[in-house]
Design goal:
The protein has a two-stranded antiparallel ribbon with strand order 1-2. It is built from 10 helices and 2 strands, in the order H-H-H-H-H-H-H-E-E-H-H-H. 76% of the residues lie in helices and 3% in strands. It has one domain (2-270). The protein has helices at 2-27, 31-53, 59-77, 84-102, 111-125, 127-136, 141-166, 181-201, 209-236, 251-270; strands at residues 170-172, 176-180. By secondary structure, the protein is an all-alpha fold.
Length: 271
C-alpha cells in the first residue's frame, strides 16, 4: 500500500513538472526546440521498444535505425515530405542487409522476432511523433496538439480513477488485469468532457457530431494503444518500458496511447 501510494505521488509530481514544460514548448517556445523534444522522445522510445522485444538485437541495427529516425525528423523539419517513403524503405532494407551478412543456423529460429523488432520499432515508436510535426505545421496546429493531449490524458486519467472506483468487469484480463470496462467507459466520458471544456475556451472547431466522433475515436485508439504496449511487455515479462519518468516508467509507458491517437488526428485534419 505504501509503495502504491509512493508511485501514485510520483506520477502526480512528474505531471506537475512536465505539464508547464510542455505548455511552454508547444505554445510559446521555438519550434525547433519542440521538435528536438519529439525526436528525443522517439529515439528513447525506440530503444525502449528494442529492450522490451529483443534485448539481444544487434547494436549496429539499433544505431542504424536510430540514425534513420533522426533523418526522418530532419526531413519533416525541412518539409521534405517526399523523402519519407524512402526513409521508411531503408528502415526495412538496412536491417535486412545486416541480417544477410550475419545470418547463421543458430539464429534461424530468431529471425521472426528479429524482423518484427527491427522493422516495426521505428514505425511504432517514431513515425507517430513525426506526424505530430505535420500537425504542428498546420494553421493553429499547436492548438490541435493541445487538444489531442487534453483528450488523451483525460482519457488515461479518467480510466484510471473510474476503474479504481467502479471497476468490476475486466476489459482484457490476459493482457492487463487491472483494466475494466467501467474504467474504459470512464475514460471515454472524461475525454468528451475535457474536449467540451477545451473548446469552450479555445475556439478551433465547433463541438459538433464530427468532433464528437473524433473524440470517441481518439479515446478508443488511446486505450488500444495502452493495451498494445501491455501485450508487448507481458509477452516479454517486462513491467515497465524504462524508468526515465518517476511514477510512470519509461517514455513508451507514458505515450503508448498517444502513439495510436496521433494518426487519428492527423488523418482527421488531412481529409
Amino acid at each position: 500500500m505504501v509503495t502504491t501510494g509512493k508511485v501514485h505521488l510520483n506520477r502526480w509530481l512528474t505531471g506537475i513538472i512536465a505539464v508547464p514544460v510542455l505548455i511552454f514548448l508547444i505554445g510559446f517556445g521555438p519550434r525547433w526546440l519542440f521538435y528536438i523534444l519529439l525526436c528525443a522522445a522517439a529515439l528513447v522510445g525506440l530503444w525502449e521498444y528494442f529492450r522490451i522485444t529483443d534485448p539481444g538485437l544487434s547494436p549496429f541495427v539499433k544505431w542504424i535505425n536510430s540514425a534513420l529516425v533522426l533523418v526522418l525528423f530532419v526531413a519533416v523539419y525541412m518539409r521534405q515530405a517526399l523523402l519519407l517513403p524512402g526513409i521508411m524503405v531503408l528502415w526495412a532494407f538496412f536491417p535486412m542487409a545486416v541480417e544477410v551478412f550475419t545470418f547463421s543456423a543458430e539464429k534461424e529460429k530468431g529471425t521472426a522476432m528479429w524482423s518484427r523488432t527491427a522493422l516495426l520499432g521505428p514505425v511504432y515508436a517514431a513515425l507517430p511523433l513525426a506526424l505530430l510535426l505535420f500537425i504542428d505545421m498546420r494553421p493553429q496546429g499547436h492548438l490541435w496538439i493541445f487538444f489531442l493531449l487534453t483528450v488523451v490524458f483525460a482519457c488515461d486519467t479518467g480510466a484510471f480513477y473510474f476503474g479504481r472506483s467502479f471497476g468490476k468487469h475486466k476489459l482484457h484480463k490476459r493482457v492487463s488485469p487491472g483494466k475494466t470496462w467501467e474504467g474504459a467507459a470512464g475514460g471515454l466520458f472524461s475525454s468528451l468532457l475535457a474536449a467540451m471544456l477545451f473548446l469552450k475556451f479555445i475556439d478551433i472547431h465547433p463541438f459538433n457530431v464530427s468532433l464528437v466522433l473524433l473524440v470517441i475515436t481518439l479515446a478508443i485508439a488511446s486505450q488500444i494503444g495502452d493495451l498494445a504496449e501491455s501485450v508487448l511487455k507481458r509477452n516479454q515479462g517486462v513491467k515497465d518500458s524504462g524508468n526515465i519518468l518517476p511514477g510512470h516508467g519509461g517514455i513508451l509507458d507514458r505515450i503508448d496511447g498517444l502513439l495510436f491517437a496521433i494518426p487519428v488526428l492527423f488523418f482527421y485534419l488531412s481529409v
